[in-house]
Amino acid sequence: MAKDLIGVRLKAVRAGRGLSQDDLAQLFGFKDRQTVSAIETGTRRMTATELMLAVEKLGAPLEHFIDPFQLVGEGRFSWRQTGVRVDELEEYERDAGRWIAAYRALAPQVGRDLPLMRRALGLTRNSRFEDAMVAGERFVTEFNLGEVPATALIEVMERELGILVLMVDAQQGISGAACRLPELDTVIIQRREVEGRRNFGVAHELFHILTWDAMPPERSEEIRETGGNRAEQLANHFAAAVLMPASSLEQTGGWASLTGEDLIAQLNAVADKLRVTSSALRWRLASLGELKPAVASSLPEDALLNNGHKVVNGTTPALFSRRFVEVLALAIEAGYVSVRQMASLLGLAIDDMADLFATNGVAQPVDL
């Protein structure tokens, strides 16, 4: 697989150096830029001599071109974050890229083929918010997510859609991301956020995965409950409909007749049941016409914080995911990677690897 990626990575390095294809052709001693174009598009393979010349002339390490556990010029990310510097985001993106690249490289080798096809929603930037909500409701129905869709959403994404979902420890301010590769889609979620925000992030990033070709998201977006660009607003309406379908909310009913503490108490109770935040629930009710927008915006934030609980409820999910860790275990057993190599890739101590397998319910490799 590394050979197939060399052209893509050469293009990324060239662009990063601010060089044109003509510049590169002259640097390599090629007769014309068509040779460079052929290499970058994969119609011509680089020779070993040309590869070493690229290392020398472009000042990039060999691993930059051939290491299968890196993403170089391949993955496109869209991050949800607040107040994270560009250089910090880029550094974390490199780490995340290594995890995703490792899964992409190892999964087929251990019999876990990557998805053959990908699903898409028939929505564009011109779609109405109501269209996004209808799409969310249909998603719940078609994939039989039940009365509390949050409990089954990740399993459906991984099993039915082939989307890798990773729960990670990210620096403060990073909430999550969607990543698009030609052969793999990934959703990354900050696992230490409260459950309701995690679940909303999963559904929000799912929308971006399912509409990437029609409306590619920005590389970085500030986290907002309301507002934002058109794609972000559509994503929020879709996510709200997936996690809080009208059928589930109708079982409670009577929202318009509630006021004050009674309204807050019901919001918090229903949000707990649906595993969302009370704040997200109020805006979902407003979009359905169950609450007036003025009422929704007037509710005191401190009464909705943590769904009214003084202490945050719920547990922190295991690091990464069972599907991801299963592939690592199989690859270690088969000798494709070592425990030490994988620990380094994941940024873990070797002693932490046993806990990684245990918390994900995966049998430890013999070599551990």
Describe what this molecule looks like in 3D.
- Strand 3 (174-180) and strand 4 form a beta hairpin.
- The chain is globular.
- The protein has helices at residues 2-16, 21-28, 33-41, 48-58, 63-66, 86-109, 129-142, 153-159, 195-211, 230-243, 246-250, 260-274, 278-287, 293-298, 301-304, 322-334, 339-346, 350-359; strands spanning 76-81, 163-168, 174-180, 185-190, 220-222.
- The model has no long low-confidence stretch (mean pLDDT 92).
- By secondary structure, it is an alpha/beta fold.
- The two termini are 27 Å apart.
Helix/strand order, N-terminal first? HHHHHEHHHEEEHEHHHHHHHHH
Q: How are the strands ordered across the major sheet?
A: 2-4-3-1-5
The coarse silhouette is globular
Strand fraction equals 5-15%
According to DSSP, the number of beta strands is 5
Biggest pleated-sheet summary? 5 strands, mixed
Task: Supply Rg.
Answer: 23 Å
Distance between the termini: 27 Å
Short description:
With 368 residues, the protein is of the alpha/beta class.
List keywords for this structure.
globular, 368 residues, five-stranded mixed sheet, alpha/beta
Topology:
Blueprint: H1 2-16, H2 21-28, H3 33-41, H4 48-58, H5 63-66, E1 76-81, H6 86-109, H7 129-142, H8 153-159, E2 163-168, E3 174-180, E4 185-190, H9 195-211, E5 220-222, H10 230-243, H11 246-250, H12 260-274, H13 278-287, H14 293-298, H15 301-304, H16 322-334, H17 339-346, H18 350-359
Parallel strand pairs: 1-5, 2-4
Antiparallel strand pairs: 1-3, 3-4
